[in-house]
Design a protein that fits this description.
Radius of gyration: 13 Å
Strand content: over 45%
Order of helices and strands: EEEEEEEEEEE
Number of strands: 11
Helix content: under 10%
Number of helices: 0
Distance between the termini: 40 Å
Length: 118
């Protein structure tokens, strides 16, 4: 059973930064998604299994950076945060070549709340 453990959410002011982490029990292609109240879960960023390729939603390009270490932890560095970034953030792992579709991901973390105040 694959386990994903997330950490790093919290409350930050507009323009601030947060770093999320997600530790998996194996090495997979990983993605971050987010879900705001009343909205569907949407793609944020993804990284290949070895970390050579990264992918971003247009809304976060230039502000968020996804990375991974040599073990099984993936990070999402979030800078220049805006109130519209407020959501529960989920990390996910996939054994497929999927990138942006949540249905392509096989395993999910528990989610961590990110709140950006005005």
């Amino acid at each position: 059973q694959v386990q994903l453990v997330e950490a790093g959410g919290g409350l930050v002011q507009t323009g601030g930064s947060l770093r999320l982490s997600c530790t998996a029990s194996g090495r997979y292609r990983m993605g971050w998604f987010r879900q705001a109240p009343g909205k569907e879960r949407g793609f944020v960023a993804a990284i290949s299994k070895v970390g050579g390729s990264t992918y971003y939603a247009e809304s976060v390009k230039g502000r968020f950076t996804i990375s991974r270490d040599n073990a099984n932890t993936v990070y999402l560095q979030m800078n220049s945060l805006k109130p519209e970034d407020t959501a529960v953030y989920y990390c996910a792992a996939t054994v497929t070549m999927g990138i942006e579709l949540s249905v392509d991901y096989d395993y999910w973390g528990q989610g961590t709340q990110v709140t950006v105040s005005d």
